[in-house]
Amino acid sequence: MTWINNIKRLLLAGVFLAIQLNATAQNFLGKNIKLALYSSTPLEDIRAVSNKCSGVIIKERREIAFQVPITSFEFDRKLMQEHFNENYMESERYPQAKFKGVIDPGPDLGKDGVYQVTATGILTVHGVDKKRTIPGKISISNGEIQVSAAFKVACVDHKIKIPKLMFTKIAEQINIKVEGKFNQLK
Amino acid sequence: MKKFRRFLVPILLIAAGAHAQDADSLLKTLDSVDKKEKIAATFKSTHVVLSHSTETEKKHDLDLRIRHHFGDIGGKFGSAHTLYGLDVASDLFIGLDYGVSDRFTVGVGRSKQEEMFNFSGKYKLLQQDLAKTMPINLTLFAQMGWIAREPFSENEFSKYSDRFSWIFQSIISRKISSRLSLQVMPGLTLRKNVSDTRDPEALVSVGFAGRMKLTKRFSFVADYTLVNGLSRPTDLSQAYYNPLGVGLEIETGGHIFSLNFMNSEYILENNFITNTKKSWTKGGVRFGFTISRNFTLFKSKNKDPDKRSDIY
User: Fold this and answer.
1) Which fold has domain A28-184?
2) What would you measure as the largest C-alpha separation in chain A, in angstroms?
3) Which listed residue, of A111, B112, B158, B291, carries a Cα 20 to 30 Å from A18's Cα?
4) Reported ipTM exceeds the 0.90 cut
5) Is A167 within 8 Å of B33 when comparing Cβ atoms?
6) Where are the domains of chain A?
7) Structural domain count, chain B
8) Maximum CA extent, chain B
């Protein structure tokens, strides 16, 4: 009866391989996602942009994750950039900010279309984890996913201290804007 | 069935492996922290206490620097009679440093002592990076000092070129940790205006400096320049001392205040390396401060509205 066993093995191997292939086919990667931050006070508006944010969507499990190197944020004034890294974000200690979560139940991500969604997960900034539900928009077409989101991060939530001594003012809530394209991982 | 199980287990493991390729491990493959990235802010300021640091101005940034050294705290010229030196202004300095590029800074200033004007250039040649392929910062510094005062005696500046002095320094620093930065500064000073004939016109010096961050905005800074005894005899008729300065640096975003104690009467390198006549041990220590304010000269040409910062 060895031939039956052989066929069984082959069938099983086939099934597992199919699952595996399927699993990789469901992953989407995004590189050079644009991440902009904006701090507004009556004294000054500070903006910065990073194009080095990367992201992953695992469609099957509705997982979504982003990460960005803090030092990749570019400011108008280099001194601001230095202060941002040195004094506020402590980039040498906490080189990355991260969000890892799950797209909340709602639209079927298998179908093309534009969906308003929320993702719930952990936002890690300045080494401090914070559970967040972040609203965003997902457009799916031809194996490509476009994601955009806008939300606020409170400095106090992530232990980013704004000293009273500052001459230039930084807002207590920083506006974040994310915009990027995810391509299917082949 | 034994065989079958033997076959099944690795397949399951491989399958599980595929599943374990979750968001985290995928993100890891995209890890975009640039290891070639330069290490910034080895020092907060372009100066430590008396000496220059390896830092240069950012491109198009102008730094207005106002410095003051008071008189002796103790000793014959200090104590309560001069309010511990606060009655005396031993040196005053106003200077501007401008970042031509992120690496190249030009500076001009004027000091009360000798009515000296200074013109300097500072070039950041090497910069320490994260990947540890470059372990140090190296900045080249050159400064000309021009004594503008009237001569004290008829033949003091017999040639006009005697009014000029030159400093050349290689400034080497390393950010040891985010809190601690250390620096060494071998240098050469050339001058004509010497009071003692045995005092060489060319002086070799080695400076040492450091910064210790106490909090994010307060740092303890210190520098010491070894000059006597190197190429200079220690038994000159006028006693000279090696300048030692310690200070507390306070950064407030655009401003840097520095509260200093040092034995040198002078502010400019061309004076303090060559002529420090006060000693820490004989009441010659004095208080001084520095105010540095940074301006960005040119309005941003950033077209990207997401990047443009506005100050109202």
Assistant:
1) Lipocalin (2.40.128)
2) 84
3) A111
4) no
5) no
6) 28-184
7) 1
8) 112
